[in-house]
Each structure stands twice: as C-alpha cells, then as structure tokens.
Write a structure and sequence with these properties.
The chain is of the alpha/beta class. It has 2 domains: about 1-100, Ribonuclease Inhibitor (Leucine-rich repeat, LRR (right-handed beta-alpha superhelix)); about 120-235, Leucine-rich repeat, LRR (right-handed beta-alpha superhelix), CATH 3.80.10.10. The chain is built from 4 helices and 11 strands, in the order H-E-E-E-E-E-E-E-E-E-E-H-E-H-H. Strands 1-2-3-4-5-6-8-10-11 form a 9-stranded parallel beta sheet. It holds the Pfam family LRR_8.
C-alpha cells in the first residue's frame, strides 16, 4: 500500500479518532500512528500479517478499542498493559500462548476475545479485571480450568472447542458469571462440578459435544435449581 493511501487514512483518523486498515497485507504496525497517540480511540488492524506489536502501543493512552484479529502475533508487549482506558481487545486468530504478566492492569477492560490462539490455560491475570463482561477463549488448547477462575468477574465465559477435561469447583463462586460455554471439550460428566448447577449464578450452561449425553446432565443433583435460573433469565430477555 502506498504512502499516500496511508496518509489519507491518518488524516481521517486524526478527525474521527478511528484508524481502520484491515486486509491490506501489513506486516508491521504502522509507525506513523504514533503521531496520533492522543487522538485515537479505536485501532483496527485485523486480517493483516502483523507479527509484532511494538512497545509504542503503550503510548495510546486514550485508546478504547484495539482489534488485531487474524494476524501473526506470537506475544504481546508488556507496554500494552498501560492502556488504562482500553475497553475492548480482540485478538482472535493469532498464535498467542500467554498474556503479559501485567495484563491485570487493563482496569477498564470489558470485552476480551482470544479465540483461535494457543493458550493452554485460563490466564490467571484475568481474575483481577473488575469490569470484564465477556471473555472468549474458544478454540485454544486449554486442558483445565484452574482455581483462580473463581475470582473472574466476567458475565460470559466462552471455552468452546478446547481440550478441557478438568474444571475447578471454584468456577461456581464467580460472582457475576451467568453464561458458561463448554461445548466440544473432553469433559466426563463426573468432572463437571455439580455446584455449577446447584450453587452458582450460572443461568446458561452450554455443554453439547462432550463425553456424556446431555440427558444424563438432567439427572444430576441441582439440575432443577439450574433450570429455575435458566427459566427466570429467559423470561427476562423474552
């Protein structure tokens, strides 16, 4: 892509606060963006070939939304964690194996999508994020859900299409968790904590495509309590 095209995009971004350049085969984060660190609220560089997010990303202190879906990122810089106003971070379809240690400092984060990466566990850093609503960790290589999940503040947690065979009973202590998606994993019925049914806030549990028949779930103790929550929530959204 020529310089003049990029220049035009930069001029628009300066006025609108939005820089969107998707599907252009970019191999790196456009350095010229650093001229707009105080303007930009939204950056979308999805469907490119970016391998590295430079440390300068930490300078976009007013950024609310960052999307880098379908790139070639293998890691994220610690500087990303300085974005105190960031509410939406979408990084689906990359090669990420872990999150930066300071990820819990993204205190405004509401929506996090990491579908289609190479995560092996639910990152413990997520437990510190107080405003998190939706976390999408589907299509990773997660095998177990650790105890730290009990501190997760999310309303919806999507763990579909992983390799999960173990879930900490702490998941039923998540204070705001209403929707838990566990479709197409490796769960035996005995490995699903019954407290999810009998003693949690969860009102939508999606478990199709595991190592048990759904009708067996209905025989578990606490299923009727779960159904009460499920029905009450359905009425609310109907």
């Amino acid at each position: 892509m020529g310089n003049s095209a990029l220049k035009a995009h930069l001029e628009t971004a300066q006025k609108t606060g939005v820089f969107q350049l998707t599907g252009k085969g970019l191999t790196e984060f456009p350095e010229d963006l650093q001229k707009l660190t105080s303007n930009l609220r939204t950056i979308d560089l999805s469907n490119n070939k970016i391998e590295l997010l430079p440390p300068l990303i930490g300078k976009f202190s007013f950024l609310k939304s960052l999307a880098l879906n379908n790139n070639k990122l293998t890691a994220l810089p610690e500087e990303l964690c300085k974005l105190k106003k960031l509410e939406t971070l979408h990084l689906n379809g990359n090669h990420l194996r872990q999150l930066p240690a300071a990820f819990g400092q993204l205190s405004a984060l509401k929506s996090l999508s990491l579908s289609g990466n190479q995560l092996r566990t639910v990152p413990t850093q997520l437990s510190g994020l107080r405003h998190l609503d939706v976390v999408d960790l589907s299509k990773n290589q997660i095998q177990n859900v650790p105890d730290t999940v009990g501190e997760l503040q999310a309303i919806e947690l999507n763990l579909n299409q992983n390799q999960i065979s173990q879930i900490s009973v702490q998941i039923s202590h998540c204070p705001r968790l209403k929707v838990l998606r566990l479709e197409e994993n490796c769960l035996e019925l005995s490995m699903l904590p019954q407290s999810i049914l009998s003693d949690s806030q969860i009102s939508l549990l999606a478990v199709e495509g595991n190592l048990f028949e759904i009708k067996k779930l209905r025989e578990l103790e606490g299923y009727d309590k779960y159904m009460e929550r499920f029905t009450a929530t359905k009425k609310k959204f109907a």
